[in-house]
Amino acid sequence: MKNTILLTFGCSWTYGEGSGYVPGMTIEEYEEIQNDPTICWENGWRKKVVDHFNFDHINFGDYGSSNDRQFRLAKKFFTSKKFKDLYETNKKIIILWGTTSLNRYDFWIRMERSYEKIFLGDVESDVKRYNNDKDRLGLALKKFSYDEITRLRELEIDMLFWNQYFKCLNIKNYWFDTFNPFNYKISLNNFIPYDGERLSLSKLIEKEHRKITPGLNFNYYTGFGYLIDKGLVNPYSYHPLKEYYSKIGDYFIQILSDKI
After folding, report:
1. 86 and 172 assigned to the same domain
2. How far is CA 48 from CA 19, 253, 258, in A?
3. What is the pLDDT of residues 208-236, one digit of tens each?
4. Which residue segment(s) compose the domain that 97 sits in?
5. Which of 145, 170, 205 is the last residue of a domain?
């Protein structure tokens, strides 16, 4: 489908981080290849989808990315001459967009002269260890601003906005959650389903593994703990093993085959 271009947005699970992990690697060996762009492309799920359909492809997903960062990159791209020229070719455009953690931010840091990824998870330790501007800003956000429900409502508004924008341009876009599904208060008919639920990549891996382990009590704990306990993610950064990135690719191929 050379007249179709796939755009992907998301975080490390879209980028393919950690897909080069081999059991038995030391953490030093792993960190050398953790974010290698060639390895992450070759072993991640995007290449499998692109090769299957013979799509053209542009990726905006990045390791450590935030929802904020993805929306900023989208605004930059969709107002650019590059997009204008692409749109005028009349190529069909399909977008797969993965949401990520709410406690990640994307801010311009004056000292660095660049946009920086800010994580609030363990920002107190980061401030003590690095004491740089972005971590101090992260600590202030966590102390004075961050509220999970508010962040989720903001995400919903952004999703509704981009749905309307893409509809006006006749662009097909599909959402999925990367980690455990969010408790959305909105209903989106372009949210990719999985087993009757909204798609979450971590949930897909969990359920795919349960299918090949007959007799396993389904009430056994779920979520990320399951992936870690069963060794479905690597032990250092908790990203999917290569074989489960492949299963994600298989599922997207199945979904897109019914939509294009």
Report:
1. yes
2. 13, 8, 17
3. 998 887 655 544 455 788 899 999 999 99
4. 4-103+147-257
5. 145
Residue recorded with tokens 């250092």: 236
**Is the same domain home to 115 and 200?**
no
- AA letter at 54: N
pTM: 0.94
- Report the candidate in 46, 43, 38, 56 with the shortest Cα–Cα distance to residue 11: 46
Please state, in angstroms and rounded to a whole number, the distance separating the CA atoms of residues 173 and 93: 8
Residues 181 and 93 in one domain: yes
CB–CB of 248/208 below 8 Å? no
Count of residues in the chain? 260
Same domain, 157 and 238: yes
Q: What is the pLDDT of residues 196-207, one digit of tens each?
A: 889 999 999 999
- The Cα–Cα gap between 63 and 199 comes to 20
Per-residue model confidence (pLDDT) at position 40: 98
- Look-up: residue for tokens 């009590």? 217
